[in-house]
Structures are given as C-alpha cells and as structure tokens.
Design goal:
The chain is an alpha+beta fold and 280 residues long. Helix content is 32%, strand content 24%. Strands 1-5-4-3-2 form a five-stranded antiparallel beta sheet.
Length: 280
Amino acid sequence: MSSMLKSLSIMMIAGSLAFAGGDGDVINYVKRKLSRNPQVAINDTRIEDKLPIPGIKGWSAYVVAVDINLTRGKKTRRVKFEDILFVSSDLITSELVDRKTGRDVRSMIQPKMPKDIYSQEHLLYGKPDAKHKIVLFSDPLCPFCRMSVPDLMKAAREHPDDIALYYYHLPLTTIHPASETLVRVMLLAQKEGKMDIVEKMYQISVDPDLKDEKKILEIVKKETGYSVTPEQLHQQWIDKRLGRDRLTSRKLLVTGTPTVFADGKKDVTREKYKSFIKKK
C-alpha cells in the first residue's frame, strides 16, 4: 500500500472505538471520519463484503470500499481503496487482537477470491488443470520476494501437473521506485515467451531507488542480454494489465509482498506449495 493510501486509511479509521447498531452505522462512521478532512470529497462509500473471523465469536470483518476525490494544493485526484473495520453488535474498531495468541486479527481475514483470479494471462508456470493452484503477488525488488519467489517459480516450472502458478504484479514503488520498470520488462518478456528473463528480474543488480528508466534498461540489457525500449514498456496493454493487478490486490486486501494464496486460502508460511510436490 502506498504511503498516501496508508495515511488515508489511518485517517478513515482513526478513533479506536465507536458504537454500532447495523450496517448503516458502519457507513455513517466512515463518512464522518472522512468528512473531517477538508481535502477529501466523498464520491462513494459502501460495504464490499462482510466476513466471519475464524475462532472469534461476536465480531465480523467489514470490507469497506471508499471512493474519494483528494485535493492537494491545486491538484485533485480520484482515489479508491479498501479497508477493514471490525464490528460487533455494539462496537466498531479498526484494530482487533486475539488476547490468547497476540495475533492481529486483520491477518486472519480471508476475502472471497475473484471469479477470474485464475485467468490465463496470469498463468506463469504449470498447467491450468494442475492439482493445486498458487496465486502470488510479488515485487522483484522486494527482499523477501527475492528470498522465496525464485524457489516457488522453480517448483511450478518443474512440476506443472502439481502446481499452477498465477502471478500478479505489485510493484511497491514508494519503497523501491525501480521495481515498476522491472515489472514492465517482465510483462513484455512473458508475452514473448522469454520466461528466463522473468526469473532473472529477481537476481538483477539494480539500485531500488533508481528512477531513471533508461539506466535501468541499460542494466537489464547488460545483465540479461534482453534489449527493450521505453516505448515498448509503455504500451497500453501493459498499463491496463498493471491496473488490473493493482485492482485485484485491493480486492484481496493485499498490501505487502510476497503474498501467497494456496488453493484459495492465504498462506502465511509461503511454503505450502512444497507439500504439493509429489515425492519420488
């Protein structure tokens, strides 16, 4: 999640507890919080989903979709995001912790998977009818992704009957700006069937803070031999694909990388795929 969206989210849910009596109270609560900021004009707020919380009685997780116009200086932009509020029969809160385990309940929430999550355009490795399906949200410059994603890719590539890997791009550009250029390179390479280039983006040596696209592409060419022009990276289909991936991440409340879903359920270990591989 970008720093701007984080600040909006915190602003929206500021104030630990409020009284609730029904779904309408949740929407009114959100609108009151948003309306306190003079930079915000509300277009729409709605309850996107209402989910049970595993093992916790009396509380539900409300996924609230927010659509606003945000004005900063002379510029106004439209911003859409989702957030979670925890609601009981009487209370609304933004944070809920399991007293026995100390675990943040937010990490336990499992939104419904979109119907088109297993689309062909996102299939990186494996067969569509593989026994198990992995959905991955990743950034090639995320240190944690670099430690785990190459092994996951290798497993799906070598065991196509057991694992189908569906890859979603989530470049965290506020943390490492260079990632979006690498992600665009990955998309182009994948379309051309150059899967080795896709995997090499996880080993490439580039300063994460580098913003000069031409310099990044020079490094890509030097280290991988793959030559790409800025014009190729900014084709309309690539822009649309990144937009769709970001939208899917919001629907699934994905804010960090790598985030892994194994057979439709969030895998906090990121290693469940290992149990899907047949032992010889």
